[in-house]
Every structure is written in C-alpha cells, then in structure tokens.
Amino acid sequence: MPGKKSRYTKKEDRQADHIKESEKDRGKSDEEAERIAYATVNKQKNKKKED
Q1: Are 38 and 16 in contact (CB under 8 A)?
Q2: Are 39 and 6 in contact (CB under 8 A)?
Q3: Contact present, 18 and 34 (Cβ < 8 Å)
Q4: How far is CA 51 from CA 13, 26, 36, in A?
Q5: Contact 17, 37 (CB under 8 A)
Q6: CA 30, CA 51: separation in Å to the nearest integer?
Q7: Where are the chain's structural domains?
Q8: Is the pTM of this model over 0.90?
C-alpha cells in the first residue's frame, strides 16, 4: 500500500530489534522480548516529547 505510514521510524525499529535480541539472550520468550523492546522504545519516544 503506497504512502502507508509506520508507527515507528526505521531507527526505532532497529533499536527495538537490538533490545529484543538482548532480552532473548537473557532467556525471555520471543513474545515477551518483543513486548519489552517496544515498551522501551515507546518510553524513550514519550520522554523526547516531554523535552
């Protein structure tokens, strides 16, 4: 679908992938690791909006 907007930027997706891999290395399941990763990205995103 042309012109479709993503909720996350490419940079945020890369950050989430990195966090997800780190959480998986710590023994978290794929689903839990992804939840933690995007929750962290959202937290950082919202913190930037406050500044």
Answers
A1: yes
A2: no
A3: no
A4: 22, 32, 23
A5: yes
A6: 32
A7: 10-50
A8: no
Residue recorded with tokens 């989430």: 16
Local structure of residue 5 (DSSP, 8 states) = P
Q: What is the pLDDT of residues 16-42, one digit of tens each?
A: 999 999 999 999 999 999 999 999 999
- Token pair in block for residue 34: 């992804």
Angle at which helix 10-25 crosses helix 30-50, to 10 degrees, equals 140
Amino acid at site 28:
K
* Cβ contacts of 15 within 8 Å, gap of 6 or more: 37, 40, 41, 44
